């Protein structure tokens, strides 16, 4: 991959060489982007804003899965269950222990971490398909737990919870809650980036790339495989808690294996082993059904609509589109949107001398 | 630099995989500061021996001592912490990481930051610590002359460079005993010369005790202090290079008869007629 450092931009110290962003321009662009997003509630309608909030909390959970699957090379098809556990835990903490929502969200993340590490223990011994089946157990057990433990989840009726608030200021509308999610996304993504450029993050990638030599380098494989599950569950728990206090209602039905697979779809489309790819993939997966909707709407009443009965088959068209897109990505862009984005940047940088 | 305290000792080590006897009753010791080579024909058990030292295999019988401590049942990651580092016969770099990150992984047991302090990077001293180690890593990079590839992805490098990066990674562990499994396999003459120089410097400047498996007899005879010869899992000779070279067992098992190996006498007979012609 071509380096995107402009000519003449020489690093004069190791600290300048270990920054998150390669250049000051790229850093300023991201800060500018976040500032623009802060204006979104002023200009966007409620529906568009709800999509952004959705991208936010799902993006946090997707980053967790990417740390587990993309960076550590493990596999999990129980991510939605951890997401659900975070949602229920936060709601339970607020209603039963009267923990303020402000503290309940990180606390839910910590408790989900503990559960994630328990279910991650098989990872110490299992690999590949066998591990996938072990994590499937997590999915099934937790889902069953949600349905049966009515003291915790409210059973089939679900559970109601309070909105997010600080010092009496309640974030109960989409316009207000957007800022809570935005703050969490920024913080969680910065934490994730820092993790991956420090000791334990490198150890996780080392375990993925060559576990035998990682062990020879002094890395305890059991510890890091379990830790990876813990970190991934933490992100899922935070994402789930944000979801709970957004809708202020958690139902036991949402956290199915299909949702887990959608999380996998997000990180595959976004790019395995890419931090920003997780967010790109989530945005793609959230906006794909919307574009399908738009497509069917714009074709409505035409000959194609009448022939294929599009308006009535929207639901399954969506699922088909998601499946087709995942297959197309695996064939044409296995490194995901993050890689495609890099190539687009390189193209403009190097034009017209691309070689 | 040679001192007469054994840093490593193997006592009656045997290793069996079912009915296959990979090693049979091998005993030897390595002094601190030595450059020790293990040679032998293919399948003789050289890599098995190195795997027993690094902890990849646990011997079926016998004991292994490192710095006077019994490490027979210790896991590889704990052995890395007490000062055993190694490179692999087949390249075992972290293919998708940069060269710099690969070498930094070698610092794992010396760094103190963890997933919490690492994630909070600026506020917990993790940044300061990382930068301090980065400085030391750069010295290793300079020593092995791989500055130009420090930001390259390890998997994209040429074979010779990858071998060098692997050596750098093992050096980053700051080991007292470094195990090199065929460090020169598949290299051209120039790369071999460089690598031999690095190994001698590793031993003399950095003071590391080196255990090396190598098939290039020229290099082995030139730089080793002592040599052990294995054949079919048994130790058939051990001693100074000239002793091993003269050993009848070794000639039969590995070196072949006199026409295959250039002993000192052969050199004379080959060069003398050439001199007359000129």
From TrEMBL, chain A:
It comes from the Bacteria. Signal peptide: none annotated. One of its GO terms (molecular function) is branched-chain amino acid transmembrane transporter activity. InterPro entries: ABC_transp_permease, LivM-like. One of its GO terms (cellular component) is plasma membrane. The chain crosses the membrane at residues 20-40, 47-69, 75-94, 101-122, 151-171, 177-196, 226-247, 259-288, 315-332. This is Branched-chain amino acid ABC transporter permease. It is found in: Cell membrane. Keywords: Cell membrane, Membrane, Transmembrane, Transmembrane helix. Its main location: membrane. It is a multi-pass membrane protein. CDD domains: TM_PBP1_LivM_like.
Automatic annotation (TrEMBL), chain B:
The keyword Nucleotide-binding applies. Residues 8-257 form the ABC transporter domain. SMART domains: AAA. Keywords: ATP-binding, Nucleotide-binding, Transport. GO terms for molecular function: ATP binding; ATP hydrolysis activity. Gene3D superfamilies: P-loop containing nucleotide triphosphate hydrolases (3.40.50.300). The keyword Transport applies. GO terms for cellular component: plasma membrane. This is ABC transporter ATP-binding protein. It comes from Skermanella aerolata.
């Amino acid at each position: 991959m071509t380096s995107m450092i402009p000519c003449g931009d020489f690093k004069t110290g190791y600290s300048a060489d270990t920054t998150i962003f390669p250049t000051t321009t790229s850093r300023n662009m991201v800060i500018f982007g976040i500032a623009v997003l802060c204006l979104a509630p002023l200009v966007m309608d409620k529906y568009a804003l709800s999509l952004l909030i959705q991208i936010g909390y799902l993006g946090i959970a997707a980053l967790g899965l990417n740390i587990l699957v993309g960076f550590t090379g493990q596999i999990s098809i129980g991510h939605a269950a951890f997401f659900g556990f975070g949602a229920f835990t936060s709601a339970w903490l607020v209603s039963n222990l009267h923990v303020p929502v402000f503290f309940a969200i990180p606390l839910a993340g910590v408790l989900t971490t503990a559960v994630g590490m328990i279910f991650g223990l098989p990872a110490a011994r299992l690999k590949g398909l066998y591990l996938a089946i072990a994590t499937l157990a997590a999915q099934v057990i937790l889902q069953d737990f949600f349905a049966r433990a009515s003291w915790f989840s409210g059973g089939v009726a679900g559970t109601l919870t309070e909105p997010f608030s600080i010092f009496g200021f309640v974030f109960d509308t989409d316009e207000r809650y957007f800022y809570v999610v935005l703050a969490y996304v920024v913080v969680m993504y910065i934490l994730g980036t820092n993790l991956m450029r420090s000791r334990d993050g490198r150890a996780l990638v080392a375990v993925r790339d060559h576990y035998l030599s990682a062990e020879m380098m002094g890395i305890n494989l059991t510890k890091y495989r379990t830790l990876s599950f813990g970190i991934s569950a933490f992100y899922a728990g935070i994402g789930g808690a944000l979801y709970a206090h957004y809708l202020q209602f958690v139902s036991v039905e949402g956290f199915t294996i299909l949702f887990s697979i959608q999380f996998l779809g997000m990180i595959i489309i976004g790019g395995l082993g890419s931090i920003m790819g997780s967010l790109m993939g989530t945005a793609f997966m959230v906006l794909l059904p919307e574009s399908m909707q738009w497509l069917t709407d714009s074709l409505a009443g035409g000959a194609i609509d009448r022939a294929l009965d599009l308006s009535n088959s929207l639901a399954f068209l969506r699922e088909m589109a998601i499946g087709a897109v995942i297959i197309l990505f695996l064939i044409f862009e296995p490194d995901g949107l993050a890689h495609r984005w890099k190539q687009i940047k390189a193209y403009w940088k190097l034009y017209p001398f691309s070689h | 630099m040679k001192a007469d305290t054994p840093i490593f000792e193997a006592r009656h080590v045997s290793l069996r995989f079912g009915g296959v006897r990979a090693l049979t009753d091998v005993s030897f010791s390595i002094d601190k500061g030595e450059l020790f080579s293990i040679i032998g024909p293919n399948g003789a058990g050289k890599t098995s021996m190195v795997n027993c030292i690094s902890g990849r295999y646990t011997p079926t019988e016998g004991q292994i001592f490192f710095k006077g401590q019994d490490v027979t049942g210790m896991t590889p990651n704990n052995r890395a912490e007490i000062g055993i580092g190694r490179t692999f016969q087949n390249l075992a770099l972290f293919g998708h990481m940069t060269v710099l990150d690969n070498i930094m992984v070698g610092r794992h047991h010396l760094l103190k930051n963890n997933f919490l302090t690492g994630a909070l990077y600026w506020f917990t001293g993790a940044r300061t610590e990382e930068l301090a180690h980065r400085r030391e890593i750069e010295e290793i990079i300079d020593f092995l002359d791989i500055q130009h590839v420090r930001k390259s992805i390890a998997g994209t490098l040429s074979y010779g460079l990858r071998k060098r990066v692997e050596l750098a990674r093992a050096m980053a562990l700051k080991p007292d005993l470094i195990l090199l499994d065929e460090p020169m396999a598949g290299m051209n003459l120039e790369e071999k010369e460089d690598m031999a120089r690095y190994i001698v410097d590793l031993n003399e400047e950095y003071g590391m005790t080196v255990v090396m498996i190598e098939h290039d007899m020229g290099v082995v005879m030139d730089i080793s202090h002592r040599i052990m010869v294995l054949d079919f899992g048994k130790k058939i000779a051990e001693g100074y290079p000239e002793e091993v070279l003269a050993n009848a067992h070794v000639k039969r098992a590995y070196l072949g008869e006199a026409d295959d190996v250039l002993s000192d006498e052969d050199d004379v007979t080959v060069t003398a007629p050439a001199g007359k012609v000129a």
